[in-house]
Design brief:
The chain folds into two domains: 2-69 and 241-262, no CATH class; 76-225, Rossmann fold (3-Layer(aba) Sandwich). By secondary structure, it is an alpha/beta fold. The chain is 50% helix and 13% strand. It has nine helices and seven strands.
């Protein structure tokens, strides 16, 4: 039953977020047009075009993405540094962000790490050179994934290829969502008697992740990586472009998730 709800929730997300909402909006405009409500159609079309432009340009990134990435500062700029003698009580948790199964460049587990997972993992790898804690990689099978590989296994494979000792790397392989990342990771780390967590994920994903990882048994230290907002735009980014569109879709997904969990929904 839980899996059915998860699929339904993902389906609803696809409809209320672009490009799904474009189809719904287009159908609404068509219905109003056939109902001969031309004035309303003109206004809605005008507002829709403005919305699409903002979503496809740097202005949308400034409105949607920038506040998310500015919510927390990078760990190296954080005044609250970790004492070296307390590192044994901390663990780093790196959240997965997807993988490509069946890729021609797949490793031993038949999957290649996704771009977002790779960026988060590299950020965690760099932080681990400053703070050599245990590293927990969190991510199970993706929805609809027919294979046997969890994202966590693929991430561990990459870390080992970078020279990280396999004995320092631990897996959380059950989660499919950020909520489950938090639930399963916190349970596993509590059993291991850790007192603190260095949480590594994309900067735009950190606000929602911190919202879900808050727990009285742990001190959670945010370590955002994978920044994508550019403070100094260049001329062409004021025109509609695919990069801004992709960034803004990810930001919208985060805002919807933050609202969803703020309402107490699971």
């Amino acid at each position: 039953m839980e899996s059915v709800w998860l699929y339904l929730r993902k389906g609803m997300e696809q409809l209320i977020l672009p490009p799904g909402i474009f189809l719904l909006f287009g159908l609404m405009i068509l219905f109003l047009f056939l109902s001969k409500r031309k004035k309303i159609v003109l206004w809605l079309t005008f507002l829709f075009l403005i919305f699409v432009y903002i979503l496809c340009s740097w202005f949308g990134e400034w409105l949607l993405l920038r506040p998310l990435e500015n919510a927390y500062i990078p760990l190296k700029n954080n005044n609250e540094s970790l004492e070296k003698d307390l590192l044994d009580e901390y663990a780093m948790v790196v959240l997965a962000g997807g993988m490509i199964e069946g890729s021609p460049a797949a490793g031993a587990y038949g999957a290649e790490i996704g771009e977002i997972s790779l960026a988060r993992l590299y950020g965690g790898f760099k932080i681990s050179q400053w703070y050599p804690t245990d590293i927990w990689v969190s991510g199970g099978k993706t929805l609809g994934n027919p294979g046997n590989a969890s994202i966590a296994k693929v991430m561990k494979e990459v870390l080992v290829s970078w020279g990280v000792n396999a004995d320092r790397i631990f897996l959380e392989e059950e989660s499919r969502t950020t909520l489950e990342n938090a639930f399963y990771s916190l349970n596993k780390l509590k059993i291991k008697n850790y007192r603190g967590i260095i949480l590594v994920t994309s900067a735009l994903h950190m606000k929602r992740s911190m919202q879900l990882f808050q727990n009285p048994d742990f001190k959670i230290i945010p370590a955002p990586v994978n920044y994508i907002f550019e403070e100094s735009p260049y001329f062409v980014t004021f025109f509609p472009n695919i990069f801004s569109f992709e960034h803004n879709i990810r930001a919208l997904h985060e805002w919807v998730g933050i609202l969803y969990y703020s309402l107490g929904l699971k």
